[in-house]
Specification:
Low-confidence stretches: none
Mean pLDDT: 94
Oligomer: single chain
Strand content: under 5%
Distance between the termini: 7 Å
Radius of gyration: 13 Å
Structural class: mainly alpha
Number of domains: 1
Helix content: over 70%
Shape: elongated
Length: 88
Amino acid sequence: MDLLIDYLIFINIATFLIFAVDKKRAQRGKWRVPEAWLFGLSFIGGSLGGLLSMKIMRHKTKKISFAIGMPILLIINFLGVYYLKTLL
């Protein structure tokens, strides 16, 4: 169980930081992190970090795919963690 918690902490911090980097790069007109990476990191457990970064950094909040997709991924993540907890 500790490994799962450690993983979730790591992936959410990483996702938060990558969303933040993408925001800074967007402001500077530089190469951007592909949206597929942002969704991919969120799908594998980082949706809470992604959502927090969206709110704090005000990034991707107007894109419908993120405004709807990230909360859905958060629900999927919670269900996945619940399922894994029942197995462990």
